[in-house]
């Protein structure tokens, strides 16, 4: 039964680590603007992340996306930036995989909760 608890807790922790920062970003970032991809960092395994700039209230901000497995960014291309109006430096762009990471994190957390509940159920039955 302790194995179920360990596995459940590990899945829950990983799920929360992956999903909570993205959920916070979705909650805080509601304003939209258009930005520009100014550079693309590439790794040897084919991953890429974009450095993008955008202007809010006459101030220029620069930010990076997370690593993505595909080269979906185009240098000097436009991007749709979603930012926090109280902290315009806090932002993300739609094509950066935020939604997928959030969904995967939530699934891991749900599996972790399910395994924890299964462990509790088995200890009460056995």
Automatic annotation (TrEMBL):
Protein keywords: Membrane, Transmembrane, Transmembrane helix
Annotated protein name in UniProt: DUF3592 domain-containing protein
Residues that span the membrane, as ranges: 6-24, 99-123
Keyword Transmembrane helix: yes
Keyword Transmembrane helix: yes
């Amino acid at each position: 039964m302790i194995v179920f608890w360990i596995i459940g807790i590990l899945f829950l922790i990983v799920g929360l680590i992956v999903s909570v920062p993205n959920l916070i970003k979705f909650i805080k970032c509601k304003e939209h603007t258009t930005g520009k991809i100014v550079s693309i960092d590439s790794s040897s395994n084919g991953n890429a992340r974009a450095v993008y700039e955008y202007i809010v209230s006459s101030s220029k901000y620069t930010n990076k996306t997370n690593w993505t497995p595909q080269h979906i960014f185009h240098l000097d291309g436009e991007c749709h930036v979603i930012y926090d109006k109280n902290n315009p430096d806090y932002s993300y762009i739609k094509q950066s995989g935020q939604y997928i990471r959030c969904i995967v994190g939530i699934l891991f957390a749900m599996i972790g909760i399910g395994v924890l509940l299964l462990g509790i159920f088995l200890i009460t039955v056995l």
